[in-house]
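Q: Sequence in, structure out?
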Amino acid sequence: MNVTVNIPASLQRLSGGAGAVSLTADTLADGLARLSELYPALGASIFGAGGRPLSFVRIFVNARDCSRLDGIEVRLADGDSITLMPAFAGG
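A: Exactly. Output:
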């Protein structure tokens, strides 16, 4: 499936300035693995040991939190949109 990964401005320095990346993937896990292959530094800031997303990074598929779906095993459809959202702290 052809999908788009939206990369927030805070992570674009790790994606060579790309704000969105088009790739082919059948599951969210596949898409995130391909994204990590394209941009290893970005992958390192999203994933922890064992290839699981870090707890402070929220991942959305079509504006739905993947943790409320099937996690990173959620199946993707052609045209789906994946959005990465790291947590921010401040006061």
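The mean pLDDT is 89.
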